[in-house]
Amino acid sequence: MDHMGEQDYVPNPVLEKALDVLFLLHADHELNASCTTVLQTASSLVDPYSAIAYAFVISSHLDSH
Questions:
Q1: What residue numbers bound the domain in which 39 lies?
Q2: Tens of pLDDT along 30-43?
């Protein structure tokens, strides 16, 4: 992990712990792929229709493999 190409970057321990907790909570809630995709897409401030459409495309792509 680096910040803007710095070779000896050390992350802030508070932020590192917060991300660890966030990822643990996310994994513990067992969200399916389409629900997670909607949440992540919607967090980029797109309209709800685009978020759902993108989740449909991704989930149908994942199901086909």
A1: 30-65
A2: 666 667 778 888 88
Q: Quote the pLDDT of residue 43.
A: 85
Asked, for residue 44, whether it belongs to a domain, the answer is yes
pLDDT at 24: 78
Q: What is the DSSP letter of 60?
A: H
C-beta of residue 27 within 8 angstroms of C-beta of residue 36: no
pTM of the model: 0.40
Does residue 3 belong to any structural domain of this protein? no
CA angle, 35 then 38 then 44, to 5°: 145
Residue 8 in domain: no
Structure-token match 């967090």, residue found = 43
